[in-house]
Amino acid sequence: MPEESSAPEEFPLADVDTSAHAADAQSSPNSALETANNLATEVAGVSTPAPSPVRQRSREPVPLETASDLPPVTSAADRRLRIPEPLPVRLVAVSDCEVAAAAGLEVELDAFYIGLLGFEKMDDPHSLQYRAENYRLSFIVTELAPVREDFRPVGILVPSLPTLRAQLDEREIEYLRQKSLVPGVESLLLTDPAGNWLEISEMRIAI
């Protein structure tokens, strides 16, 4: 015999008071969506969590750190390779120059080439040399006054010729001003303490 079909078992819904929600929806149309959400929550049996209290910001002033509260700042040693500044004097030459000088003039030569012209003395106990920005000027020291074969001057370039003229006048060093064939260019012709002729001009920036 065919089996009798049994009707599906019906589960009654929970009793929900919809009259209050309907009255709220009619009295406040703008809250219809909120009422529907609350109704769905009650049908599902889920309670709406209470809102968390808003934390109020403290109005008390925040104390600031003073300089005494901060740790001391110590700078680390700079280990980068230092490049020396270029010397403010150049030789008009294509290589190192050699001139002669009598013995006993080292102090006067130091004052002239280092203190006046801006050369740098080479640390060599066996020779007397002064370094310019590009080449060196070496002195052949002799016991007697050297015999000069020619009087060609050693060319030297300095940053400012008017400044050098003022220093020469202050030290009462004689010099001769000579003008070049180029307008506005001049040079000074003088001798160093050893009697070597020098022609000093001003550095020009090539444009």
Descriptors:
single chain, 207 residues, alpha+beta, 2,3-Dihydroxybiphenyl 1,2-Dioxygenase, domain 1, five-stranded mixed beta sheet, 9 strands, 21% helix, 20% strand
Secondary-structure map:
Blueprint: H1 18-27, H2 32-44, E1 90-91, E2 97-102, H3 106-116, E3 120-121, E4 128-131, E5 136-142, E6 154-158, H4 161-170, E7 176-179, E8 186-191, E9 197-202
Parallel strand pairs: 2-5, 6-9
Antiparallel strand pairs: 1-6, 3-4, 4-5, 7-8, 8-9
Helix pairs in contact: 1-2
CATH topology of the domain at 90-202, which one? 2,3-Dihydroxybiphenyl 1,2-Dioxygenase, domain 1
**What is the helix content?**
10-25%
What's the count of strands? 9
Shape: elongated
Roughly how many Å is the radius of gyration? 50 Å
Distance between the termini: 120 Å
Largest sheet: 5 strands, mixed
Proportion of strand residues: 15-25%
The total of helices stands at: 4
How would you describe what is shown here?
This protein has helices at 18-27, 32-44, 106-116, 161-170; strands at residues 90-91, 97-102, 120-121, 128-131, 136-142, 154-158, 176-179, 186-191, 197-202. The protein is an alpha+beta fold and 207 residues long. The strands form 2 sheets. It has a 5-stranded mixed beta sheet, covered by helices on one side. A 4-stranded mixed beta sheet has the order 2-5-4-3, with helices on one face. The radius of gyration is 50 Å and the shape is elongated. The protein starts with 17 loop residues before the first helix and ends in a 5-residue tail after the last strand. The mean pLDDT is 80.
